[in-house]
Amino acid sequence: MSGSERCDSVSLTRSELQGRRRTTFFVIVLLPVVIAAVLFRLDPFEPVLLPEHEISRPNLVAGTLARNDNMRRGSEVIGNGRVAGPEDLVYDVATNVVYTGCRDGWIKRVKLSDDSVSGSEVVEDWVNTGGRPLGVALDHGGALIVGDANKGLLRITKDKKVEVLTDEVDGLKFKLTDGVDVAKDGTIYFTDASYKYSLKDHFLDLLEGKPHGRFMSYDPTTKKTKVLLHNLYFPNGVAVSPDQQFVIFCESVLMKCKKYYIEGPKKGSVEKFCDNLPGYPDNIHYDEQGQYWIGLGSVLPPMNLSSFLLFRLLYLPMIPDHMMILLLLSYLLPLIVLLRDQPQNWI
Question: Scanning 19, 21, 261, 266, which has the fewest C-beta atoms within 10 Å of its C-beta?
Fold first, then answer.
């Protein structure tokens, strides 16, 4: 074989292999992303840092934030092993019953026992919403008001009839209906933790670092829903003050709680209620004895660039298939480009 013939043969082989690499790259990486974007109509994921002036700086050691096990003293375990992922709860004094929403969609009704024997309470599968019930509260007629992450704001009567009170406002659907409480005048205050991401993708809201949450009210008389506050960082639990002057809501990502005035000279204004919490506040309840109880979801630090990268790894097993494609692309694309640019040994 002559030198010119060998050169033509090598050139042809290299061209064919380069074409195959481009085809393989498109089929394996780009095509699934295009299909996912078409099928799921993905919104752009554009992570940013949280505003510096809003981030709490908790002290996890000193003073009142020191770790302790005081809650365990004199506490009783209710429904142990019989409730799957209970979220919020509400106690009905008239019937001695606790209602709580579980991750399997069931509203559990727990009838408390008069004795002190743990496990003697009766746990009932009361109503399945077909979604994910989160916040719960009782209205003045004894009906259960539920913030269902998937269904919206629900009302469940004593005879188990489920009614969707509202699931959108201003033409924008709720994606993650969350905390709820009822004022004495019947107004329901609740949160939509994110109008962009649903519950199964909620970690993307945390990672993106943008304020997609809303704090709202629903008037059962006029059946009107009103947005009271926009641009909140994952608003969560809600509690109306005993004097009906303000409503406290938790802003989980910022590790703080704020109060929104519903009466008086400050009506419509927002103030800090508490900040520098040692974790992400979830639900909040008033105990009728002058204290608010706040459940903390975790003690992880606020999001920044380094924790964003860490969370991408920690949440990998929870990522739905269509988002997994995009994340895999973000990890594999630099490697693919690197390998593509490496010199090859041709025969």
Answer: 19
211-246 burial by CB neighbour count: b if 16+ within 10 A, else e?
A: bbbbbbbbebeeeebeeebeebbbbbbbbbbeeeeb
The string of pLDDT tens digits covering residues 179-208 is 999 999 999 999 999 999 999 988 888 888
**Residue extents of the structural domains in the chain:** 3-46+320-340, 52-303
DSSP character string of 283-314: EEEE-SSS-EEEEE---PPPP-HHHHHHHHHH
Dihedral pair phi/psi, residue 182, rounded to 5°: -120, 130
**Position of tokens 């709720």?**
174
What is the spatial distance between Cα 325 and Cα 331, in angstroms, rounded to a whole number?
10
CATH architecture of 52-303: 6 Propeller (2.120)
